[in-house]
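Comment thread on ticket #2218

A.B. wrote:
> Attaching the input chain for the structure job we discussed in standup.
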Amino acid sequence: MKNKDFSPKPPRRPPPGPEFPHKPKLPKWSERLPQQPTLYEKAEERTTEPAAKPPTSPVLIVIVSVAILAMAVFIILFVCTLFNLNLFGLGTSTPPSEGGVPQTGAGLHQEYPQGLSGEWVSRVPGTGFVNTMIPGPFTFYCDVVLNLDRSGNTVTGSSQTTLRDVVINPGWADSSIVESDYPYWKGRVGTTQTDSVSGTVSGNSISITGTMSDITYTLTYTGDRLYGDTQFEAAGIKYKSTFDLKRK
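C.D. wrote:
> Ran it. Output below, let me know if you need it in another format.
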C-alpha cells in the first residue's frame, strides 16, 4: 500500500470559455488617455476657411428691387399730390390764372396747353348752343362762335349764334302756338345774332352775360372744352340752355 501524498497541490486552472473567461485584457495607457490632435491637425484647423454662404436667388433680388421701385414711385406721387405739384406730369395742378400759367402750391410754373382766352366753337356741329322751352313747343339748335379775352378774374368778348334747326317738342304738334309760330322760326334758320359778353372767372367756372339778352350763363372749362347748363325765364317763358363748345 502506497502512502498518500498529503502535500498541498496547486489549484486547478479553470478551462477557457464564456463561463470562465480569462482575466480581461486591460487597454494600454496610450489608449486610456484622450486622443490629442497632432500638430498637423492643429495647423489644418487654423487654416480651414469658413463655409461660403449660399448664393442669393435672382428671383428674390428682382422681387426686392420691384418693391423698392414701387415704394419710391408711391412716395413721389404722394408728395406731388400733397403739395399740388405737376412734376414730370405727376400729381395735380390748379387751372391757369393768367396767360396760360397755372398756380401751383410750391410756386413752380409750367406752360398750360392754353388758357380761357381764345376762340371757342361748337364741339358737335349744330349743338354748340341748345335752347329748349320748358314747357314749350320748340327746341332751338344753334352753332356758336365765342371769342373770349381773359384778364385776371374778368373776361370779355363776343359771341355769334347761328340758328341751325327748330324742332317741335313732344306733345306740342297739335298746339295752336306751333301752327302760328313754327313757320316763323323755320324761316329764321341760318340767321346769325352777334352779341358782346362779359363776366367773371372763379377756378374752372366762368359766368358770362350777354349785353343784348341780359342773361347770365354759368359754364365750366377744362382744358379744351367749355360747357354748362343754365335755366332762365324770358317774356314769361322758361328755357333751359346748354352749351357744349371746344377750343378752335
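A.B. wrote:
> Thanks. Noting for the ticket: Residues 88-113 have pLDDT under 50 and may be disordered.
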